[in-house]
TrEMBL record:
Domain GCVT N-terminal: 15-110
Domain of life: Bacteria
Protein's UniProt name: Folate-binding protein
Gene Ontology BP term (one): iron-sulfur cluster assembly
Record bears the keyword Cell membrane: no
Domain spans labelled CAF17 C-terminal: 213-285
Keywords: Transit peptide
Length: 299
C-alpha cells in the first residue's frame, strides 16, 4: 500500500486510456503531435490529437507502461474528452495491431501539489513533461485512493495557474483552439521535425509564418481577486479575448496579443470581469510579449 497523505491531489477531471499491442508506438506516432520516440520508461510525453484543420481534439500526457506490466502506453487525458478521444482513436486504428481500453473508472490520476516527485509505491509514476516545476504524477488504482492523495484538486490547479500552464476546458476550448494558442510549442507538446500527423500542415504553417496572434498567457489581477471563468477580457471597449481559470489573484487568459499591444500603446487598462490585470511572462515562454522590443502583429 502506498504511503499515506502525500502532498498530492486526486485529479477527478482526468481519465486514462490504454493503448497496447505490437503496433502501439507506431500507431500513436502517426497521429499525435509529438515524437513517440521520446516516450520511454523514464520520460513521459505531452501531445495531442488534432482535427485535419489543426484544432485540438484533446491533449494528454503519454506514459510508457513497463513490459512487466503488459507494455503499451497510458494516456492521461481530460475525463470529458475521453469518449471522443476513444472514438477518434478507434477510427484511425484500421488494421493496426492495437488494443484500446478506457480505464477511467478503475484508475485515478494523482498529481503533486508542491512540485515534488511522487514515490514509486504511489502507482505508475512519472514527472510532468510540460514543466519540471509541476512535479510528479501517478496513475493508480482507485482502491485505497483516499490513503494516497490528501490534498484537494484546487491546490493542484492553484499551483498550475501560478506557474502559467493552461488547462484544456478551462483556459482553451477543445475543437476550437490551435496548438500554438494552447502553448504546445512552448511546453514540448509538438514536434516540427517528425513526419506527417493529423493536422500537421496547419501547425507547421503557423510555426513558419509566425501567425499565432492569440495565446493563452498568465495574468495578474491588480486587486488580488479572481474573476469568473469565461468572462470577456477587454480594453477601451474592445474585446481582447477571455479569462480562463484563476486562483489567488493570478490566472490565464486567451488573448489577441496584437490587440493587447495596441491597448497598452494607447494607455488603456486591461480588464476582465471588471478587474484590471497585467500580463506576466514566465521564463518558459519564448515568444515576444506586447511591449517587448520587436513585438509585432505576428506575435
Amino acid at each position: 500500500m502506498p504511503a499515506a497523505h502525500l502532498k498530492a491531489a486526486h485529479l477527478k477531471d482526468r481519465g486514462v486510456i490504454r493503448v497496447s499491442g505490437e503496433d502501439a508506438r507506431d500507431f500513436l506516432q502517426n497521429i499525435v503531435t509529438n515524437e513517440m520516440d521520446l516516450v520511454t520508461a523514464d520520460h513521459a510525453g505531452y501531445g495531442g490529437l488534432l482535427t485535419p484543420q489543426g484544432k485540438i481534439i484533446s491533449d494528454f500526457l503519454v506514459i510508457a507502461v513497463p513490459e512487466s506490466e503488459g507494455g503499451g502506453f497510458l494516456l492521461d487525458a481530460p475525463l470529458l474528452q475521453v469518449p471522443d478521444l476513444m472514438k477518434r482513436l478507434k477510427l484511425y486504428k484500421l488494421r493496426a495491431k492495437v488494443a484500446l481500453d478506457d480505464l477511467s473508472e478503475a484508475s485515478a490520476v494523482i498529481a503533486a501539489t508542491d512540485g515534488s516527485q511522487l514515490p514509486a509505491d504511489a502507482g505508475l509514476t512519472y514527472a510532468d513533461p510540460r514543466l519540471s516545476e509541476l512535479g510528479g504524477r501517478a496513475i493508480t488504482d482507485r482502491d485505497g485512493l483516499n490513503e494516497i492523495a490528501s490534498e484537494d484538486m484546487d491546490a493542484y490547479h492553484a499551483r498550475r495557474i501560478a506557474l502559467g500552464i493552461p488547462d484544456g476546458g478551462r483556459d482553451f476550448a477543445y475543437g476550437d483552439t490551435f496548438p500554438h494558442e494552447a502553448l504546445f510549442d512552448q511546453l514540448g507538446g509538438v514536434s516540427f521535425k517528425k513526419g506527417c500527423y493529423i493536422g500537421q500542415e496547419v501547425v507547421s504553417r503557423m510555426q513558419h509564418r509566425g501567425t499565432a496572434r492569440t495565446r493563452a498567457v498568465p495574468v495578474v489581477f491588480t486587486e488580488g481577486l479572481n474573476p469568473e471563468m469565461g468572462v470577456e477580457a477587454s480594453a477601451g471597449g474592445k474585446s481582447l479575448g477571455h479569462i480562463g481559470s484563476s486562483a489567488g489573484g493570478r490566472g490565464l487568459a486567451m488573448l489577441r496579443l496584437d490587440r493587447v499591444a495596441d491597448a497598452l500603446a494607447e494607455g488603456q487598462t486591461l480588464a476582465g470581469g471588471g478587474l484590471a490585470f497585467t500580463l506576466e511572462k514566465p521564463s518558459f515562454l519564448h515568444f515576444l510579449f506586447p511591449g517587448e522590443p520587436g513585438f509585432g502583429a505576428a506575435a
